Amino acid sequence: MEFLRNNQTTDVPRVDSMKPLEKHYSVVLPTVSHSGFLYKTASAGKLLQDRRAREEFSRRWCVLSDGVLSYFEHERAMTPNGEIRTSEIVCLAVPPPDSHGFEHTFEVYTEGERLYLFGLESAELAREWVKCIAKAFVPPLAEDLLARDFERLGRLPYKAGLSLQRAQEGWFALTGSELRAVFPEGPCEEPLQLRRLQELSIQGDNENQVLVLVERRRTLYIQGERRLDFMGWLGAIQKAAASLGDTLSEQQLGDSDIPVIVYRCVDYITQCGLTSEGIYRKCGQTSKTQRLLESLRQDARSVHLKEGEQHVDDVSSALKRFLRDLPDGLFTRAQRLSWLEASEIEDEEEKVSRYRELLVHLPPVNRATVKALISHLYCVQCFSDTNQMNTHNLAIVFGPTLFQTDGQDYKAGRVVEDLISHYVVVFSVDEEELRKQREEVTAIVKMRVAGTASGTQHAGDFICTVYLEEKKAESEQHVKIPASMTAEELTLEILDRRNVGIREKDYWTCFEVNEKEEAERPLHFAEKVLPILHGLGIDSHLVVKKHQSMEAMLLYLASRVGDTKHGMMKFREDRSLLGLGLPSGGFHDRYFILNSSCLRLYKEVRSHRPEKEWPVKSLKVYLGIKKKLRPPTCWGFTVVHETEKHDKQQWYLCCDTQMELREWFATFLFVQHDGLVWPSEPSRVSRAVPEVRLGSVSLIPLRGSENEMRRSVAAFTADPLSVLRNV
Fold first, then answer.
1. Which DSSP state fits 697?
2. Lowest pLDDT segment from 377-391, 542-556, 713-727
3. What PROSITE patterns does the record tag this protein with (predicted)?
4. What is the DSSP pairing of strand 476-480 with strand 598-602?
5. In terms of CB atoms within 10 Å, which end of the chain has fewer, N or C?
6. What is the distance between the alpha carbons of residues 685 and 508, in angstroms, rounded to a whole number?
């Protein structure tokens, strides 16, 4: 099975200046007529950063007719001072009231990189002009965008869907924190919730800028073909994506309705501070805490907390300050008293039931935040032997913070203590969720212990870069990997994000690809991903694709007798690390016997004593052999064996036919995993995949932030910490 070398291009899609944009519509726009006096300034070739005084506006008689907006010195003039063809209008923007000398203004952007500013005192007249101009340049395809009051409306080149080869032209409207889009493929529109974006960034150089908007399971590239209106869109979208106020619901939100500012802090402390003595009791430096909190409030999505740059006490203080300063509080003013009264119920079962009832009545964002915070504090108290912060101590700190009291009311602390103590029952946490949470936290602490021993420390998400089918920028996705995630779960996650349905006999699998060795290894469906992630070298990556040989291997395993295999293969040895060192010698014929316990190598069929013997479950088998070794056939695989002293040996085996290769590889899988090669659950072929589209275009994920967690941590496989064994 030959290794397919992947495309290594990772550039962001760029505007192709040599090719015109694809325009899928050719329609005659409806005739719109309107006239009246407007006040206008001289056209500009750059964005209006400063307020235009009333004296800078000139009164002009304006006529919109036959696709032309003309402006005259006065209403009896026969020759216009100038005109704007509606076919050349690319954007119409409505600044906030009183942005300029006239209270109500609107901006018109043209293909010629000119900006025209018009103003009126009457809101009604200004709105009428905006609607008429919009109707004159927006095609019927996108006329639904006119049904709402918008801050910005226009056409932009974009790339999306499964093909990013050519830019197309779409129509966009910005309304509050929603960006609505209509694409040529269909009139349906679906808003992007800008405050829920996972990423909002600018890629490329000044000549080819791309605005990247990443929402869960979909990505949109908006391209800067015309710099003037693109910069206007950029500023407006960035402003709309920022937090709107101080309340929880006005913050930038994640997938689970948890404010990004809360997630950032909680996740950092989980990664770096679970074993920090006095965590949350100790205060950070006031100046650093204030600067951090201001950055998080301004744009939490762009703040990436890193160990060495922020101290855990500064982050914990910023989180406490944010929660204390919430105008309505985490438990809301309307329900605060009910929570405090519930803490005085003597019967524990009745009290827990009351907490559950009150939780349901909290606003969705508050409810999600309470659960996330208490879940985090539950993990913190699991390490109280080290951090000295048991449930009672955490309640003393967070009671006054969450209920915004002066610390004199003991009931506030009791509520927090009850919620942590009864976390599983109050928040309906099932055993599987709790198990995954414990495993993830245990893995984090184990890695920190290993990092301390090796002199390296890592902070931030455990993020795995995964590609779909092949390595290229448009198929790349970054996924947070909990300690419990299996290769099957990762595969299904990637397919869900890309809206890929799984049909019968579709054997989608996650592969570990080593580009330098030109070899790849299909991960077993039950294999844990996190240890693999930390063992990946710089020349390796993960890719999800169909396992083309799986059906043939399963048929072979179902028809064969016994669980052993033997036969001749061509053999070459290399006693170096995978991908390093100079192999010696060529390929030689050798006889192999593979059984449930070991792989044995004999010099020839008649030999009675094996030359070499390896325990089969300590072997990693990769499909493919690098071409510079000049393998005698293209049906080969690379075998790696790691000794107890962490020394690695590897060798190369070649078969005469593809069928032989499949049989050997299938037998390896069979004996290594006790006969369970492929999951028998029907969920893999009947899993419902929710459709995620923007308009009628299926969107794809884009690469996220840099993967900082791909370095190897040698001691990751150490025994789990005993602190969680009896939790």
1. E
2. 713-727
3. PH_DOMAIN (PS50003), RA (PS50200), RHOGAP (PS50238)
4. unpaired
5. C
6. 10
Rounded Cα–Cα distance for residues 238 and 292 (Å)? 20
Residue 570, strand partner residues:
589, 654
Q: What is the pLDDT of residue 312?
A: 92
From residue 403, alpha-carbon distances to 326, 357, 423 in Å are: 10, 18, 18
Beta-carbon-side half-sphere exposure of residue 154 (alpha carbons within 13 Å):
27
Check: CB of residue 216 under 8 Å from CB of residue 480.
no
Beta-bridge partners for 623: 520, 637
Show the tokens assigned to 260: 């990004």
Report the predicted TM-score, pTM, of the whole model to 2 decimal places: 0.58
Listed in sequence order, the DSSP H helices in 31-122 are none
Query: What DSSP element (H or E) covers 613?
Result: strand 612-615
Whether residue 451 is predicted with pLDDT greater than 70 in this model: the reply is no
User: In 344-497, which ranges are continuous DSSP H helix?
Assistant: 348-360, 364-382, 384-387, 391-403, 410-421, 423-426, 431-454, 487-497
Give 528's DSSP letter. Answer: B
Q: Residue 383: count other Cβ atoms within 10 Å of its Cβ.
A: 21
CB proximity list for 81: less than 8 A, separation 6 or greater? 60, 71, 72, 73
User: 623: buried, middle or exposed (CB in 10 Å: 19+, 13-18, 0-12)?
Assistant: buried
Cα-Cα end-to-end distance for the chain: 48
Where do runs of H (alpha helix) occur along 200-275? 227-241, 260-272
CB 26 within 8 A of CB 492: no
Q: 315-333 pLDDT, tens per residue?
A: 999 999 999 999 989 999 9
Sorted by sequence, the CB contacts under 8 Å of residue 583 that are 6+ apart come out as 572, 573, 574, 576, 629
Per-residue CA distances from 174 to 229, 243, 495 (Å): 13, 16, 30
Q: Residue 484: which region, alpha, beta or left (left: phi > 0; alpha: psi -120 to 50)?
A: alpha
Q: In the prediction, which pLDDT does 354 show?
A: 95
- Per the CB < 8 A criterion, the answer to whether 480 and 270 are in contact is no
Phi-psi sector, 62: left (phi>0), alpha (psi -120 to 50), beta: beta
16, two tokens: 């192709």
Of 142 and 508, more confident:
508
Interacting residues of 141 by C-beta distance below 8 A, sequence separation 6+: 25, 27, 171, 182, 184, 187
Residue 87 or residue 31, greater confidence: 87
CA distances for 22 relative to 15, 28, 396, angstroms: 12, 18, 62
- Identify the CA nearest to 196 among candidates 8, 49, 365, 418: 365
